[in-house]
Here is the input.
Amino acid sequence: MTMLKAMAAMVLTVAIAALPALAQNTGTSVRVKDIAHVQGVTGNQLVGYGVVVGLQGTGDSTSVIFTSQTIQNILQSFGLTVSQQEVRTRDVAAVIVTATLPPFAHSGDNVDVDVSAMGDATSLQGGTLVLTELRAANNLVYATAQGPVSVGGFVAGFSGSSVNKNYTGAGRIPNGAVIARSMDTPLTNGNNEFNYVLTTPDFKTAANLAAALNAHFGARTARATDAETVHVTLPPAYAGNPVQFLADADDISFHQNETAKVVMNERTGTIVFGGDIKLAPCAIAHGDLTITIATQNQVSQPNPLASGQTALQQNSTIQASEKGHQLTFVAGATTLSSVVRALNVLGVSPRDLIAIVQALRQAGSLQADLEMI
Here is the structure.
């Protein structure tokens, strides 16, 4: 019986000691590969200049000189010599071709390319991109692109009337580029070390990631160097094999610290609240100012017995009205759902809500960061 009591006391002691650790695990459970990537493992941007042919009179006009010069250069490479006056460009458009070379890309792989008109071409619909070299920032050719351009829209018209859907001055060629040069992307710095980079920098998240890696692979495997970077030293069992380490580490789950943030877009009237937002009690009054300008045109006729001319007289009236609202008390809120309910009490439009949120942040009632996009 004494031994049973001792074991029970030991279990209770372990459980109590574990309570603070469990309390600290607040936030959202995420996997390593969902919120972090290896530093240096990223895509590289490519760009090139080319022409799209086969258009039905929707290409560049003769005023776009570089299109005519490009056609001359292309024909000259095929052994044909023409003057600029003999070149017609309505079925041809000069374009900029862009693509992203993914990490670990090898020669012979295919990537998508985007094609955008440079001149005054009205549509790239039905066109075909002529062989175009794609260069990186170091001016080396990494891929070549060619193929029919897919445009997500159309333009149709007759006798001066036209109808269009979406924008037809840009298009895409799926798998239109062939990689000609392999991309060397090292995973480690040569000393069996590399850095994890968080998608959203946060000190707590970085510390949690380092702790999760150390718990799984052993102490001193990882350490957080700042809010964005976690330095990793490969364990002896993974020395010289970083791929296997990354494969095993990708599915490790840990707690991501939620950031209190509000993202707003004034152009579209969009406002998005992140998690862990708190709202202190406050009082709000918001009014709408409306200005109306009306113009009425009247014709002034001269006296028939006197000399004069008929004149157009404009009469303009300006009215300004402001809808005042009484102060509205908003109780404090500690969860996202309660914050939404509190702000819905105001009954304002999204664009007015953006102004209110900015004022709440300045007053210190909204405990979150604001980001304008």
About this structure: The chain has three domains: 44-156+163-179, 187-256, 262-293+318-372. The radius of gyration is 33 Å. Residues 1-25 have pLDDT under 50 and may be disordered.
